[in-house]
């Protein structure tokens, strides 16, 4: 039986200095490094996966750290904001934590459903939100990081994209991919998919006059949506191709299989399988501690380690 698209799987962005990226997402935001590997398409660049204790789909924020490369610009045809879930009781904790780390933020701002939102930027200028909402405690965060478990980030709340023509994007989301329009607020259209709620939300900003973004350091590369297994992935590959979209062949990313395509507004989407997950080559206890390579790159391990910058994972007292 078809299960459709289930929600967010991961979001991938492009960052600068690798160590700064690690220090911010692990030491400040308290996400776990669940996998340290390389960009399979450019293996001289790391691919970091951050998430909850287990690396659960819907919690995974990933980065390609390119070092001192050119900076990108955020605009139309891109995902622009990554939103995380926190408990309402954690808002004051996060205000104090960001203040203590000298991180500039705005808010909290009241949003729909009585949610309160803090907006901030990471070291490379990527816009993030911490959304305090009822029910966030249902999803656990990283249990053993620097943030007390009761205040930990609980995975994605949603993602915001900007497009010039909302109509075409909306048609793909609702008529093809199974999303439902939840609400419209001015030029912002909110959709959900699967069971809905946090982790299954996309906001589409319709800005006809916006400039297209330039993809490089400090921008989001793509959004990945969850599907249950490879059979579902292939089914969706066919459905999307039949609409006229250019869909890639199935890619084996070791921890999931996936296909890529651009929605009509230019944003790069991916569909990714839940299995096999991040524990196929490391124990749960040791996730993210060693450099992991696909079999076809193992023969190049020594040369790759010389090319990749050295990084140190933060160590926390338990």
In terms of topology, how is this protein built?
Layout: E1 7-15, H1 18-28, E2 32-39, E3 42-51, E4 60-65, E5 78-86, H2 91-100, E6 105-110, E7 116-121, E8 127-132, E9 156-163, H3 166-176, E10 180-185, E11 188-192, E12 201-206, E13 219-227, H4 230-242, E14 251-252, E15 257-262, E16 268-273, H5 301-307
Parallel strand pairs: 1-4, 5-8, 9-12, 13-16
Antiparallel strand pairs: 1-13, 2-3, 3-4, 5-9, 6-7, 7-8, 10-11, 11-12, 14-15, 15-16
Account of the 3D structure:
The protein is α+β, with helices and mostly antiparallel strands and 318 residues long. It has a single domain (7-307), classed as 2,3-Dihydroxybiphenyl 1,2-Dioxygenase, domain 1 (Roll), CATH 3.10.180. The protein is built from five helices and 16 strands. The chain has helices spanning 18-28, 91-100, 166-176, 230-242, 301-307; strands at residues 7-15, 32-39, 42-51, 60-65, 78-86, 105-110, 116-121, 127-132, 156-163, 180-185, 188-192, 201-206, 219-227, 251-252, 257-262, 268-273. Strand 10 and strand 11 (188-192) form a beta hairpin.
* Text of the CATH class: Alpha Beta
Radius of gyration from the CA trace?
19 Å
Q: What is the CATH superfamily label?
A: 2,3-Dihydroxybiphenyl 1,2-Dioxygenase, domain 1
Quaternary state reads single chain
Described by strand count, sense and barrel closure, the largest sheet is: 8 strands, mixed
Strand content is 25-35%
| Unreliable parts | none
Strand order of the largest sheet: 2-3-4-1-13-16-15-14
Shape by Cα distribution: globular
| Total beta strand runs | 16
CATH architecture: Roll
What is the ordering of alpha helices and beta strands? EHEEEEHEEEEHEEEEHEEEH
> With helices defined by DSSP (H or I, 4 residues minimum), what is the helix count?
5
Mean pLDDT: 96
**CATH topology (level 3) name:** 2,3-Dihydroxybiphenyl 1,2-Dioxygenase, domain 1
Proportion of residues in helical segments = 10-25%
> What class, by secondary structure content?
alpha+beta
Give the CA-CA distance, first to last residue.
44 Å
What count of domains describes the coordinates?
1
């Amino acid at each position: 039986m078809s299960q459709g698209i289930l929600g967010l799987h991961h979001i991938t962005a492009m960052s600068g200095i690798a160590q700064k990226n690690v220090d911010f997402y692990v030491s400040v935001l308290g996400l776990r490094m669940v996998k340290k590997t390389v960009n399979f398409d450019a293996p001289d660049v790391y691919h970091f996966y951050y998430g909850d204790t287990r690396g659960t789909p819907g919690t995974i924020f990933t980065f390609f750290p390119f070092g001192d490369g050119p900076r990108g610009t955020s605009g139309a045809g891109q995902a622009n904001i990554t939103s995380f879930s926190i408990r309402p009781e954690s808002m004051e904790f996060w205000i104090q934590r960001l203040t203590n780390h000298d991180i500039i933020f705005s808010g909290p701002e009241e949003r729909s459903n009585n949610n309160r939102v803090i907006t901030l930027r990471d070291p490379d200028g990527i816009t993030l939100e911490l959304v305090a909402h009822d029910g966030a405690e249902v999803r656990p965060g990283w249990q053993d990081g620097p943030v007390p478990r009761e205040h930990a980030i609980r995975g994605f709340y949603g993602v915001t994209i900007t497009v010039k023509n909302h109509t075409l994007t909306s048609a793909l989301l609702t008529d093809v991919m199974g999303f439902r329009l939840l609400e419209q607020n001015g030029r912002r259209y909110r959709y959900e998919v699967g069971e809905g709620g946090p982790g299954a939300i996309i906001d589409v900003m319709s800005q006809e006059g916006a400039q297209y973004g330039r993809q490089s350091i400090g921008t989001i590369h793509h959004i990945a949506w969850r599907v249950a297994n490879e059979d579902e992935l292939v089914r969706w590959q066919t459905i999307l191709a039949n609409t006229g979209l250019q869909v890639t062949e199935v890619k084996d990313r070791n921890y999931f299989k996936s296909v890529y395509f651009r929605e009509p507004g230019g944003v790069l989407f991916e569909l990714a399988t839940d299995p096999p997950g991040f524990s196929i080559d490391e124990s749960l206890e040791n996730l993210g501690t060693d450099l992991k390579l696909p079999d076809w790159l193992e023969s190049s391990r020594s040369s790759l380690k010389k090319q990749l910058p050295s990084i140190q994972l933060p160590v926390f007292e338990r």
